[in-house]
């Protein structure tokens, strides 16, 4: 079995998100980018499947800020191949465009299974995985919390609200949107990532052109939400804050003897 | 393209999901403005009459097939894609649940129509549908135009329409392709029974990724003990195994409404807010002043949780002795 895991670099949400001059996107140039956390979950699930079945795992990333780090980390963790798709992605691309590029690449890689993060923080026009499946005409299961071998195919655990889970058997090639791997993503030491980087082996190829979208979304503007119930922000140091909070909790009659 | 607004009605175990009334309320408003109907789409294995009763829709489109006994992604996508191609609605509204995350993107790709995801607002501006969507974990909102297309809507974005009357039900033939599917429903697993039922607790000290590691949960536990409450968590904390899954608050966890919810190191992603925004008193401790948790909190501080928690525990313990 050949598993492909597309990995996306996304804005680190802890950063201050400044807008571009047009106010239609974040100012990407100065932002810090990290691997989409759900793609990391997808990679972990792929590595677990590799351990269980001897599958091979290929990670694929667009040439976005710090993608080398992400791809080499995946190799250090156990991915067999890493493919970087070169092109100009600095201005960001839509999920539909990403899905279109990946669809062409995944076909070329002869994948039996695509595991991809269930979402990313930038999915304004939808999640990449389900768009990819729709583009390829492949079956898809979203919000998966486990993928295991099952009667020659796979068995996917799909999570619903309040913790209800469905098990679904899937035959043949499919795309699965991973919410969480069966175990927390494994840790890999920086030194091992450096070793992988020194060994090299990242396969670089030109990213294919995305297909034209029929009628793409038009972004009018991005803005910080107007806060509806602005929190009262407490000033002072932690001791002052604790004092005020304790008082507030006491005033509500919530302190029990 | 017509002027109807379609709503996919989600239902499980014979009950219509809360999202249906919220989406249909909005659909009615938009349909009236656009000169069309609010149309509810029901896929089912024979339960349509009961499900359609009281739906606040102008019309119900019903597709019956044995495979709709349970939610099976491929079956739903096949049937609704066929329906959309035939009906060409102005707009299709889908809740951003697991079911919706499965359908919205698949239908957008298959029918080549645009999709606005994580939608919290929908208006008609002349002939243009304008959607407002949450992006970047709720830190920013985007206003987008879609001529026609699909919107996947965040829970609680629109007030629910009142149930009433029974709309006419139009039966449609099941499309081809439902008998040769590549997936099969195996079983449904109910959530495990919790050691603690966080939905029944009045005081929750809730920890997020900011707590840094399992060894620090203790800090929250001590405060919870002093208050006579329990510790709950955001999803990453439960996924990492630092606390049991049954303590998770949010979209895929439990919905809670305690008297006091202290969010410690929780950013306030939309999926988390869905589960706790109705708490009576929300206190947020988060070093990032732009964290969306402060949009729903009543009181907040940007002091470090590692300083605030022990200091607060000490004071609550002292006050409890006096009380
Ligand atoms: C289908 C689906 C369902 C989901 N369901 C849920 C759900 O049920 N519940 C849920 O919670 N999430 C859910 N999520 C995940 C959700 O999108 C977020 O990823 C998650 O809520 C983030 O958790 P967090 O706030 O703990 O972590 P982060 O977003 O990483 O936030 C950590 C915060 O801690 C702060 N911090 C760090 N250090 C300190 C410190 N020393 N003192 C004070 N503050 C500090 C940071 O400023 C940051 O804001 C779901 C996602 C999907 C796709
Ligand atoms: N796929 C599903 N199958 C059965 N029940 C579900 C499913 N999804 C949600 N529910 C139930 O619907 C209720 C509300 O779900 P939600 O509003 O999505 O959190 C809960 O009691 C869940 O158990």
Our count of helices of chain B gives 9
The portion of residues forming beta strands of chain A comes to 25-35%
- Evaluate the radius of gyration of chain B: 22 Å
The shape of chain A is globular
Distance between the termini of chain B: 68 Å
Q: Tell how many strands the DSSP assignment of chain B holds.
A: 17
Count of helical stretches of chain A = 6
Uncertain stretches of 5 or more adjacent residues of chain A: none
Low-confidence stretches of chain B: none
Give me the Rg of chain A, rounded. 21 Å
- Quaternary organisation: heterodimer
* Backbone structural class of chain B: alpha/beta
Bound ions, cofactors and other small molecules, one mention each: flavin-adenine dinucleotide, adenosine monophosphate
The succession of helices and strands of chain A, N to C, reads: EEEHEHEHEHEEEEHEEEH
Q: What's the order of the H and E elements of chain B?
A: EEEHEHEHEHEEEEEEEHEHEHEHEH
Mean pLDDT of chain A: 95
Strand order of the largest sheet of chain A: 9-8-7-10-6-1-4-5-11
Q: Give the percentage of residues in beta strands of chain B.
A: 25-35%
The order of strands across the largest sheet of chain B is: 9-8-7-10-6-1-4-5-11
């Amino acid at each position: 079995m050949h598993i492909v895991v597309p990995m996306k670099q996304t804005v680190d949400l802890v950063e201050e998100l400044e807008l571009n001059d047009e106010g239609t996107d974040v100012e990407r140039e100065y932002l810090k980018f990290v691997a989409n956390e759900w793609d990391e979950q997808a990679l972990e699930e792929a590595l677990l499947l590799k351990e269980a079945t001897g599958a091979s795992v290929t990670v694929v990333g667009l040439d976005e800020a710090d993608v080398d780090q992400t791809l080499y980390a995946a190799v250090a963790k156990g991915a067999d191949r890493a493919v970087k798709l070169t092109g100009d992605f600095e201005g960001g691309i839509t999920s539909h465009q990403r899905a279109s590029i990946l669809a062409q690449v995944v076909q070329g890689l002869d994948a039996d299974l695509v595991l991809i993060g269930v979402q990313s923080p930038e999915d304004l026009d939808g999640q990449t995985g389900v768009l990819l499946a729709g583009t390829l005409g492949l079956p898809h299961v979203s919000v998966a919390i486990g993928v295991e071998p099952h009667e020659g195919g796979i068995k996917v655990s799909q999570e619903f609200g309040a913790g209800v889970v469905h098990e679904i058997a899937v035959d043949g090639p499919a795309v699965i949107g991973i919410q969480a791997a069966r175990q927390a993503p494994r840790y890999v030491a920086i030194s091992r990532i450096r070793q992988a980087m020194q060994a090299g082996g990242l396969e670089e190829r030109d990213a294919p052109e995305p297909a034209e979208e029929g009628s793409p979304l038009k972004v009018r503007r991005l803005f910080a939400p107007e806060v509806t119930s602005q929190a009262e922000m407490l000033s002072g140091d932690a001791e002052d804050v604790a004092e005020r909070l304790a008082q507030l909790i006491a005033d509500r009659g919530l302190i029990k003897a | 393209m017509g002027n109807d607004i379609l709503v996919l009605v989600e239902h499980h175990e014979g009950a219509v999901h809360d999202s249906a009334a919220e989406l249909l309320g909005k659909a009615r408003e938009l349909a009236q403005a656009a000169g069309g109907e609010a149309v509810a789409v029901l896929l089912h294995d024979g339960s349509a009459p009961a499900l359609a009763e009281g739906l606040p829709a102008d019309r119900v489109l019903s597709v019956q097939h044995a495979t709709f006994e349970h939610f099976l992604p491929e079956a739903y996508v096949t049937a609704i894609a066929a329906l959309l191609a035939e009906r060409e609605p102005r707009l299709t509204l889908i809740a951003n649940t697991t079911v919706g995350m499965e359908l919205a993107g698949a239908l957008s790709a298959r029918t080549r129509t645009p999709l606005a995801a994580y939608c919290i607002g929908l208006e008609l501006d002349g002939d243009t549908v304008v959607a407002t969507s949450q992006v970047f974990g709720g830190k920013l909102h985007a206003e987008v135009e879609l001529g026609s297309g699909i919107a996947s809507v965040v829970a609680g974005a629109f007030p629910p329409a009142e149930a009433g009357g029974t709309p006419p039900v139009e039966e449609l033939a099941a499309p081809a392709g439902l008998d040769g599917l590549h997936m099969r429903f195996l079983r449904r697993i109910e959530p495990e029974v919790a050691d603690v039922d966080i939905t029944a607790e009045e005081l929750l000290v809730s920890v997020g990724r900011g707590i840094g590691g399992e060894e620090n949960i203790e800090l929250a536990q001590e405060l919870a003990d002093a208050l006579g409450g329990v510790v709950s968590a955001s999803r990453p904390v439960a996924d990492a195994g630092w606390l049991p899954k049954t303590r998770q608050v949010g979209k895929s966890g439990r919905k809670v409404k305690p008297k006091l919810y202290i969010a410690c190191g929780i950013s306030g992603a939309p999926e988390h807010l869905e589960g706790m925004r109705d708490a009576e008193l929300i206190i947020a401790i988060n070093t990032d002043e732009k964290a969306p948790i402060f949009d729903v909190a009543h009181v907040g501080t940007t002091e470090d949780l590692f300083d605030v928690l022990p200091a607060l525990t000490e004071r609550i313990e002292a006050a409890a002795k006096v009380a």
